[in-house]
Design brief:
279 residues, alpha+beta, 6-stranded antiparallel barrel, 4 helices, disordered C terminus
Length: 279
């Protein structure tokens, strides 16, 4: 009798342990099912539709030159030159810096218009006009053209190259490769001032003092403006001064020098020009 009693107790304990294990497993399975339900409910949204909230984001660009570009773009011309047989011999850029009752006055490079019989300028609207050469200087590479007033849409403001500082934001407006890309804008900084570069001419060479920039200056940009962030001209770009093998190094003739040259070659063309107030 005692034998059956002891074996019964052992059997009861084993059954109780088996039941506990089963209950624990059931609880564990129920927990898994519950957490799976929560995951599906929250992530797949089976029973309700969440409201989508749309937020309007306004992006503001700092240090933009959009205003400056809009201020000067109507002042820039494509300059094309032709020989006596009406063959195109040169392409460059120019800009209107003065308008009087009859004419608009354009600054460009001497090498753009040299050895030409006819000069045709095209404004940003695509209107073409014949321009007349008022005077030029081979050494400074500056020339002044005149065109009928109706083609000169707007004059540009002349700044001060001496007041410009290294690191200032600058940009160019020009016609790389001709009319197809007229009005092209490139942006950079003023990389250097009072740079001494050697300029070769037919009768020898000399040293010119120029501004240096990393803004791209390509064929067709010659004679175009180098401008500060206010849209004031601080220099006249010249491809003649660019070394083909060096990237990111362009040069411009300081506007202060340009004004001195214009005063010598054609004084009347400088009168009433619109200068920046900080000059």
């Amino acid at each position: 009798m005692l034998f059956y009693f002891k074996n019964g107790r052992k059997y009861f304990k084993r059954c109780r342990c088996w039941v506990k294990r089963k209950i624990f497993k059931i609880k564990k399975d129920i927990s898994k099912i519950f957490y799976l339900y929560l995951f599906v409910y929250n992530n797949f949204n089976l029973y309700k539709t969440k409201e989508t909230k749309v937020t309007r984001v306004k992006i503001t660009e700092k240090n933009t030159i959009k205003k400056a570009i809009n201020k000067v773009k109507d002042s820039v011309f494509v300059v094309e030159t032709y020989d006596q047989f009406n063959n195109k011999v040169g392409t460059g850029t120019g800009f209107v810096y003065k308008i009087d009752n009859n004419y608009g006055y354009i600054i460009t490079n001497h090498h753009v218009i040299s050895n030409s019989e006819n000069i045709i300028v095209t404004n940003i609207s695509g209107a073409e006009a014949k321009a007349k050469l008022l005077g030029s200087d081979e050494y400074s590479d500056i020339a002044v053209l005149v065109v009928d007033k109706k083609y000169a849409l707007k004059k540009i403001e002349l700044g001060s190259s001496s007041n410009s500082e290294i690191g200032d934001t600058v940009f160019t407006v020009g016609s790389p490769l001709g009319k197809k890309y007229m009005g092209t804008v490139t942006k950079g900084i003023l990389s250097g001032k009072e740079r001494q570069v050697e300029v070769s001419l037919t009768n020898g060479s000399f040293i010119m003092e120029v501004l240096q920039t990393d803004a791209a200056i390509n064929p067709g940009n010659s004679g175009g403006p180098l401008l500060n962030i206010n849209g004031e001209v601080i220099g006249v770009t010249s491809m003649k001064l660019v070394e083909d093998e060096i990237e990111g190094m362009g040069f411009a003739i300081p506007i202060n020098t340009v004004c001195q040259v214009i005063e010598k070659i054609y004084p009347e063309a400088l009168e009433t020009a619109n200068f920046a107030t900080d000059k």
